[in-house]
Design brief:
Strand order of the largest sheet: 4-6-12-11-9
Number of strands: 14
Largest sheet: 5 strands, mixed, barrel
Helix content: 10-25%
Number of helices: 4
Mean pLDDT: 85
């Protein structure tokens, strides 16, 4: 599975050093007014990113996962993003809509969704809300990007809400990025963070999600707010 970009949020748009060979092609899907945009570069070794709108998805970018009996898998309860339209409905996927689309129960309720990436759970776009964890020896992290997750009901603070239950493969690295607000989160024990190494970022010359927001919704808060911060 591609160890892509789920968390790395470099929003320094003033520099806008984008790779010259990045291409973005969009088309209508024909379902729920959804749109699919393919972000690609000429390097055949770099996986495409598919920006999909108006589709429910799991957002694991700030999730602290727990270990399972299988050391190669982590149990993650991720936020379910079910926006019908608007900028929060746009997510970055490693697969096309055909593979990424949700499944439904017989009564029409959500059954499964794919774990994609977006900025829907970020409140401050003027800074990069990620922490870079550095260790002396490789530590585990959960690679949830592109994982198929089960939609479940859970009671939180006395209120029932839907979550996405994802079982994500565990990888190990000395350095990775997490979506926790505090650097101290890197030192938490008994936590396997949903994370990324972000090692293909330079192939696009910028954060692929920023490129997708600029293409699909240039008036979205991630673009407008980050531009204000550089003025």
């Amino acid at each position: 599975m591609n160890k892509w970009i789920m968390l790395s949020l470099s929003l320094t748009l003033s520099s806008q050093v984008f790779a010259a060979d990045v291409k973005t092609e969009c088309q209508e899907i024909g379902i729920n007014n959804s749109q699919e945009c393919v972000l690609s570069v000429s390097d055949a070794d770099v996986a495409n990113v598919y920006g999909i709108t108006n589709m429910p998805y799991a957002l694991c970018s700030m999730t602290a996962c727990t270990a399972t009996d299988n050391k190669n898998l982590a149990d993650c309860e991720c936020e379910l993003i079910n926006e019908k339209e608007g900028w929060k409905s746009l997510s970055g996927s490693p697969t096309t809509f055909v593979s990424a689309k949700p499944t439904y129960n017989e009564n029409g309720t959500l059954q499964t969704v794919q774990s994609n990436y977006s900025m829907a759970n970020i409140s401050d776009f003027s800074a990069a809300p990620t922490q870079k964890c550095n260790y002396d020896k490789p530590q585990p992290w959960a690679n949830c990007y592109g994982v198929r997750c089960t939609v479940e009901n859970k009671t939180v603070a006395g209120k029932e809400q839907q979550i996405a239950h994802c079982v994500c493969p565990v990888l190990e690295d000395k350095t990775f990025l997490i979506g926790a607000p505090e650097q101290s989160a890197c030192a938490k024990k008994d936590v396997i963070w949903s994370a990324t190494t972000g090692d293909t970022m330079s192939s696009f010359g910028a954060n692929p999600m920023v490129l997708l927001y600029q293409k699909i919704d240039p008036q979205s808060p991630p673009i407008k707010d980050s531009k204000k911060s550089t003025e």
